[in-house]
Design a protein that fits this description.
By secondary structure, the chain is mainly α. The protein is built from 5 helices and no strands. It has 2 domains: about 35 residues, no CATH class; about 40 residues, no CATH class. It starts with a helix and ends with a helix.
């Protein structure tokens, strides 16, 4: 019984080409590592229990959620009260372009 080499060579080639992709992904820091580095930098010269408490608090905090388009529209609409016509259009345009207010 003879084994065909063609499929095995193809499989070996696919595996060898996919391995570098896994190595690159493993080297990239994940969100927890990024958060840890940022908190560590903010901790500065704190030591002992003060540092532990700071790091614990810092790592628990989640970044503020980005304002949705609907929330932005509500906020801008509220801020535009009293404006009319072209003035309102110009204000709304600028307000909606701003990032987060």
């Amino acid at each position: 019984m003879r084994i065909k080499r063609g499929p095995w060579i193809f499989i070996a080639l696919l595996v060898s080409l996919s391995l570098p992709g896994f190595a690159v992904r493993a080297a990239e820091p994940n969100s927890q590592q990024i958060k840890m580095a940022a908190c560590n930098q903010q901790a500065g010269g704190k030591k002992g229990d003060e540092r532990k408490a700071f790091m614990s608090d810092c790592l628990k905090h989640k970044p503020a959620a980005e304002e949705t388009q609907q929330d932005k529209m509500k906020r801008c609409n509220h801020e535009a009260s009293g404006k009319t016509g072209d003035e309102r259009k110009a204000f709304m345009s600028q307000c909606l372009k701003k990032a987060g207010g």
